[in-house]
Amino acid sequence: MIVGVPREIKEGENRVGLTPAGARGLTADGHQVLVETGAGEQSGLADDEYVAHGAEIVDSADEVFERADMLVKVKEPQPSEYDKLRADQVLFTYLHLASEPDVTRILLERNVAAVAYETVERPDGSLPLLTPMSEVAGKMATQVGAELLLAHRGGRGILMGGVPGVPPADVVILGCGMVGTNAAKLAAGMGAHVTILDINHDRLRYLAEVMHGNVITVYSDEHTIHRAAGYADLLIGAVLIAGARAPTLVTGDMVRDMKTRSVIMDVAVDQGGCVETIRPTTHAEPTYIVHDVVHYGVPNMPAGVPRTSTYALCNATIPYVRKIATLGLDRAAEEDGAICKGINVRNGEIVHPAVAKAFEAR
Ligand SMILES: NC(=O)c1ccc[n+]([C@@H]2O[C@H](COP(=O)([O-])OP(=O)(O)OC[C@H]3O[C@@H](n4cnc5c(N)ncnc54)[C@H](O)[C@@H]3O)[C@@H](O)[C@H]2O)c1
Questions:
Q1: 80 and 34 in one domain?
Q2: Does residue 186 sit in the same domain as residue 332?
């Protein structure tokens, strides 16, 4: 198969769909790899490295789209890429089609075989191609939140770990899934007081077992959320209800009751956010103030650390890319149920039930 890797063109996106190591694996399997010149630059990956690992560098996205049997990307196709997609071409990338009706329509019209990273699902229900980005976003939430607590960044002017004789910051995390757990581990490591809330007893039990001392677990309900928000220096929103909009857990009134210049990082903003006063922001202008509380609502946090995120993503995607390239999409889907669940659009039809439901509802 010819595997093509175009440069990502979505605003603020700095990751790339394949590392040189991925190119090496594919060429060792007997495939050809085309990489658009400069595709890896923002992730610190030079054209030369791809060439050294067996890839061919091509000058334009047009050539990648025209020659590739399978496109390996990071984000959904952008309008200027729509016309370049070919019938039966396999497209393997994040798609989020439930909230992208225009992209869905184009994939149907152009008869693309679209496989979405976010719906590749193992039999135990885990989402192996979503997890690495949640790990990145969770750690970033604490790291960036600590920075936003600095006085010159608009925050309360408080050090996460405190110093002897002066208490540390209070970090409150809503949701102890992938994002929340990673945020909690980093915050605890920095010496903050961490409160983590969830409705899932198994998750709370796991966190209570693996974390010690400065992390407390609390069952999440309106009362406990209001109370914890009231003492938070840094509040991190990390809840998810699969396939649905995030629930509004922190109301505008609760935000009004928060400490002056405390910080809200709503990582769940990509699903609508769990804080009533949150709205999507960008890496260029990440924050704004409401009720004297700093709000951060960047929906594509991993793009801020492309050198980490590209490797984290590709470490997870490459085995699937190699399987699809070697067996072809149909046989790969027959042999691997996770790939089968990843297929969203095939032969001009929406084949993923949740995507079909969202599309019909529009
Ligand atoms: N902004 C970004 O760049 C970015 C990056 C990665 C993930 N995300 C988003 O972060 C969110 C969390 O992702 P995840 O991978 O950690 O999901 P996850 O499924 O691993 O964890 C979500 C947790 O939320 C809990 N939850 C549900 N309802 C709750 C409630 N009422 N109170 C408290 N907890 C509740 C669940 O029990 C679960 O433990 C998602 O919306 C995801 O899309 C955003």
A1: yes
A2: no
137 C-alpha to center of ligand 1: Å?
Answer: 11
Say what the pLDDT of residue 243 is.
Answer: 63
Whether residue 171 sits in one domain with residue 81: no
Q: CATH no. for residue 300?
A: 3.40.50.720
Q: What is the distance in A from the centroid of ligand 1 to the CA of 240?
A: 3
How would residue 213 be classed by pLDDT, with cut points 50, 70 and 90? confident
Give the DSSP letter string of 186-207. HHHHTT-EEEEEES-HHHHHHH
Polymer length in residues for the chain: 362
Quick one: 168 and 266 in the same domain?
yes
Where do the H-state alpha helices sit in 149-288? 178-189, 201-210, 222-231, 252-256
> Does residue 198 line the site of ligand 1, with CB under 6 A?
yes
Q: Is 221 a catalytic residue?
A: no
Residue-wise pLDDT tens digits, 53-90: 999 999 999 999 999 999 999 999 999 999 999 998 99
Over 70: is that where the pLDDT of 211 sits? yes
Q: What is the dihedral of CA 214, 131, 41, 271, to 10 degrees?
A: -90
Same domain, 94 and 149: no
Asked whether residue 357 carries a pLDDT value surpassing 70, the answer given is yes
Mean pLDDT computed over 270-275? 90
Q: How many domains does the chain have?
A: 2
Element (H, E) at 248: none
Q: Ligand 1 centre from 192 Cα, in Å?
A: 21
212 is catalytic: no
Q: What pLDDT score does 120 carry?
A: 96
Which is the catalytic residue, given 31, 96, 193, 295?
A: 96
Domain enclosing residue 187, as ranges: 131-304
Predicted local distance difference test score (pLDDT) of residue 241: 81
Last-in-domain residue among 304, 337, 352: 304
Decide if 121 is inside a domain. Answer: no
228 lines ligand 1 (CB under 6 A): no
Q: Which residues are 215's β-sheet partners? A: 194
